[in-house]
Specification:
Radius of gyration: 17 Å
Order of helices and strands: EEEEHEEEEEEH
Strand content: 35-45%
CATH topology: Secreted effector protein pipB2 fold
Number of helices: 2
Number of strands: 10
Length: about 160
């Protein structure tokens, strides 16, 4: 069953995933080994965790670069993300097995102004999680991914 869940990110973190040297890792596809987990929050009730390999992290950073020229020239709208309005006691934690990532920049469309960046994470069955992020979180994402890639490459050099 395909589903789309959308929310606005009020907080973000990128954490490197340390590899346990004693763990048995399937090295048949080293590009699939997670190197970083992106964590998006929307208030206290919604958390999205997205584990990414080094290749996925590089592709995500490239997606931001490719989307930038399509960004619309528009005045600052003063957009501020709003926390998900879930009832107290209800908590969603999503961890999709991501097979595709797309990035859409802020822009003016015939339907109106989209004042935020949108990250779309798609899983194998076509379900999507769409996250609206501010400029500040966009910068944090790129820095977090860059740091994780550099740490992963440093770890490979030590081996």
């Amino acid at each position: 069953m395909r589903q789309t869940i959308a929310f606005q990110a009020t907080a973000f973190d990128a954490q490197p995933i340390p590899l346990d040297p004693n763990a048995e890792i399937d090295m048949s596809n080293p590009d699939a080994i997670p190197a970083v987990v992106l964590i998006f929050q929307s208030g206290p009730n919604v958390v999205l965790q997205v584990p990414l390999s080094v290749a996925d992290a590089q592709n995500t950073m490239n997606a931001f670069g490719e989307a930038e020229p399509h960004r619309g020239q528009m005045a600052d709208t003063g957009w501020v993300p709003q926390a998900a309005g879930l009832p107290e006691g209800m908590f969603w934690m999503l961890t999709p097995a991501v097979v595709g990532i797309s990035v859409t920049p802020p822009q003016s469309t015939p339907e109106g102004v989209i004042p935020h960046w949108t990250l779309t994470f798609e899983d194998a069955d076509g379900s999507q999680v769409q996250v609206a992020v501010s400029e500040a979180i966009t910068v944090q994402i790129i820095r977090g991914l860059s740091d994780a890639i550099n740490n992963a490459e440093d770890d490979e050099d030590e081996d």
